[in-house]
Amino acid sequence: MPNPTPPPGNSVLSVSSLNRLVRDCLESTFPLTWVGGEISNLTYAASGHVYFSLKDSSAQVRCVMWRNRAQLLGWRLENGQKIEARALVSFYEPRGEFQLNIEAIRRAGQGDLFERFLKLKAQLEAEGLFAAEAKRPLPAFPRRVAIVSSLQAAALRDVLTTLHRRAPHLRISIYPAPVQGEGAGLKIAEALARAGTGDCDAIILCRGGGSIEDLWSFNEECVARAIRATKIPVVSGVGHETDFTIADFAADLRAPTPTAAAELVSRDRDGLLAHLERLDSQLQRRTARTLADHQQRLDWLSARLVHPAERLRQRQQDVAALGLQLQRAVHAKIDRSRLLAEALNQRQSGARPRPDRLGSLLEHARYRLDKQVEWRISEYSGKLNGLASSLKQLDPHAVLQRGYTLVIGPDGRAVRNANELTPGDTLNLSFARGAATARVEQVVATLEAD
Asked: Where does the OB-fold nucleic acid binding domain start and stop, copy by copy (predicted)?
């Protein structure tokens, strides 16, 4: 933004115009910059804005941090704190006061740590340590959970309370490790390695909130590599929702708080039981509906099923009809033969050239005719007897009279192969006299010939 142009020397400025020119000049000249000092005269306004002075040994400046920025701070300011503020140099026109509009605040000395944090994060990210495809999914129903934290940490108590409330059946293994101070990162990495070799289904890495120095153990490279080296998924519940560490990026899942990490790992038992009850009710309803459908289909099939006695009656009617047809055919043949004989007799009587010889021929012809008729009758009688014998052999009752039994399987069809049966099937047995119901106890299978 170009510097505002001052008014001509002979013009008279109002106070408001002068203050606006000063503000525009300051904001266009000074970019966002970091300013370090000590907090004094701190005031939290009811509006949510924060007012304070930033001073050193020889000077001070008024500062304001608007509500939308103050809500993202994650910790509470106090008088006497040494901070570094990222600020825009500005001018409060109504009171004519020079001030800094604060965009972000960090504790003094955190600048170097933050640079180290960004450098390590970029290095590990370039190696693929934070790749999404390398993340391991959490088990749906874990049975044992490992917790890596300090035994004195309040966050550990919060996690244990949450796990006991949501999933009291979970077995918990605690791998203690210091979460702050010199050498804590190496101890955390060793605890992660021990937890990864156990029989746990997931690991919770937890610690309460704090400054970047307090959480620095979770920004060390050895912790990130230990997280990725474990065989089971790791949930990071370090600090508050606004706190981010290298462990958060390396973990398979980041929780905003330790309590949230416990909730991610555990399934709510009461909710699961309620869901199981709903599934059980659905299963019972579907089972009842399926049984009703099958019973209805069974009734429909039973109505279409023809009883063996009815089939036998139909076969008897067919045999009787065939017998009548055969008798009519035999009688018709006999009648035609008689007519032919009468015709021949009339011709013989009319001709009579040689009565003695014609009489002999007539007697011979009559003899042949009788033999032919007898042969025909014998032939048709044999066929009739054969058909009757075949029909008698096909008669189920005749077979039952010989000691055989008609076996009807569970599907309503006659059983011809024992391999079609299974133990426990119910069979309907029809005898020559009466019927019975039997249950299959054992099936002796027979190998079929190739």
From this structure: 13-106
